Amino acid sequence: MEYIPSYSEDTEDLFEHFAFTVDKGQQPLRIDKYLMNFVENATRNKIQAAAKSGHIFVNGAAVKSNYKVKPNDQIRVLFEHPPHEYLLVPEAIPLDIIYEDDALLVVNKPAGMVVHPGHGNYSGTLINALLFHFEHLPNNSSNRPGLVHRIDKDTSGLLVVAKTEHAMTHLSAQFKAKTSERSYTALVWGNIEEDKGTIDGNIGRHPKNRLQNTVFEGDEADKGKPAITHFEVLERLGYVTLVRCKLETGRTHQIRVHMKHIGHTLFNDERYGGEKILKGTTFTKYKQFVDNCFKILPRQALHAKTLGFVHPKTEALMSFSCDLPSDIELCIQKWRDYAKHVQ
Q1: Is the pLDDT of residue 106 over 90?
Q2: Residues 91, 98: Cα–Cα separation, whole Å
Q3: Which listed residue, of 43, 67, 178, 219, carries a Cα 20 to 30 Å from 3's Cα?
Q4: Cβ neighbours for 99, distance < 8 A, ≥ 6 positions apart
Q5: Residue 221's pLDDT band (boundaries 50, 70, 90)?
Q6: DSSP characters for 32-49?
């Protein structure tokens, strides 16, 4: 290990941005290459610059970019400034509010909007918009104002936001107890033969790519966190299938990971390989057709369509639904037309 003395002893004035423990089975690998798989939106040049400045630590000592990670290494990335996600700035971003009262609101989030600030996305988030439109939103357990739950950046659809401490506590308890109701509409690769089914498999970080999650099986089945997804076929469209997915749990990327696990990756889900042609023919015209679908829908085909919960104040059962956005609707229609043509 090569040391950089300026930061090797005293880190009191630095702020932790990332922290990782290297897996037991990790083969020796340069730390700049290793971190590229674990830090979203990071380039090798940025990682090497951070190491050169003495901001990457392994087991308490700063290292250079050619340090090779070993099993159980404790890696920390520290900078002089706090993480940008803690610098919450109100921004005049319009919100599609489909319901609001003095305790909560339900928002239809567009695709492309990040729910809360994080690495690489420090502005333009749902929280930035909420802080502009509402004062004194309660913090959740992660100090994120108003947020009861979240959906991915490129997933569109419904979210409930708490406006009071009581609403935050009440709604969060429902999501934790799995009594809230959430269903998603998804377009997935392949023809799902069964009309309905349940996917039950623990989900956790992928051991080789931290930007992905995976289902653990066999001897590793006890790793990760329990996750259950119920699915039902809505429409079969040849090489793709339109499905409704109902969440019993709420793990990160749950539907995306579970559907890939059963061989039906979400259409155009780049992170999980769905941006490639996974089913179909080798004809050039078919490739052009799929490319056109990708252009119409430049994201994973996933929409949080329905949301149900008990109102924290009135205790009435609330249920909401929103239409599919135009990009998903247009993509589905193209597949409908194609399926008719090839039959």
Answers
A1: yes
A2: 20
A3: 43
A4: 105, 106, 318, 320
A5: confident
A6: HHHHHTTSTT--HHHHHH
- CATH architecture, domain 5-80: Roll (3.10)
Rounded CA-CA distance 60/190 in Å is 48
Beta-bridge mates of residue 317: 310
- Token reading at 162: 């708490």
Domains 5-80 and 88-176 share a fold: no
Catalytic (active site) residue 222: no
E-strand stretches of 194-297? 196-200, 203-205, 213-215, 228-236, 240-247
Tens of pLDDT, residues 254-311: 999 999 999 999 999 999 999 999 999 989 999 999 999 999 999 999 999 999 999 9
SS3 107: strand
Q: What is the C-alpha separation between 334 and 181, in angstroms, rounded?
A: 30
> Which three-class secondary structure state does DSSP give residue 142?
coil
The pLDDT value recorded for residue 7 is 34
Q: Where are the alpha helices (DSSP H) in 110-262?
A: 126-133, 165-176, 254-261
CA dihedral 47, 53, 56, 58 (to 10 degrees): 130
Neighbours of 104 (CB within 10 A): 23
Kindly state which CATH superfamily the domain 88-176 is placed in.
Pseudouridine synthase (3.30.2350.10)
Q: Considering the candidates 152, 154, 269, 327, report the single residue annotated as catalytic.
A: 152
Looking at the structure, give the CATH architecture of the domain made up of residues 181-342: 2-Layer Sandwich (3.30)
Listing DSSP states for 24-92 in one string gives: TTPPPEEHHHHHHTTSTT--HHHHHHHHHTT-EEETTEE--TTPEE-TT-EEEEEESS--GGG------
Residue with tokens 């610098």: 87
Average pLDDT over residues 201-228: 87
Give the span between the Cα atoms of 311 and 52, in whole angstroms.
53
CB 338 within 8 A of CB 217: no
Q: Would you state the structure tokens that stand for residue 89, as one six-digit string?
A: 């700035």
